[in-house]
Request: fold
Amino acid sequence: MNTRLPLAIALTSAMAFAVGCADRNAEDRTAMQPVDQTPADTIPPAGTAANDPMVNDPAAQDSLYSADAAQDGMLDRESDQPVNDTWITTKVKSSLLADSDVSGLDINVETVNGVVTLSGDVEQQSQVEHATRIAREIEGVTDVNNTALVAR
Reply:
């Protein structure tokens, strides 16, 4: 139990930070970029990240994000409440990590519109049931899908 608590706290902190960054769009990123006032003799050589159009072009970044989302199958499951879903995911994952009866590191958690999907491999069927119970107890969870959570 004592070794899982710091891990749960660290994960919760990281996910909370991610919530603050989740709603950024191209306009936000463009507005946040400073005007380049770098002297010519300090500009990095060609081929470095600073000269990479994928790093500096918000439109290119958006296409990357869209491609990643399409590849992950996420475009057809867009959330109406991304901040709430991220909070729910954080709470479920940290609760699983803090619980000594569940192998929280082996369970993936995804939330879309309050519906939590648990996936991964656990050692016993009782862990599937316990993880499902933990997820259902989190405020904001409307349903739990555990069909992808398998006992080995």
Observations:
- The chain is about 45% helix and 15% strand.
- The beta strands are 107-112, 115-122, 143-151.
- Residues 4-21 form the longest helix (18 residues).
- The longest strand covers residues 143-151.
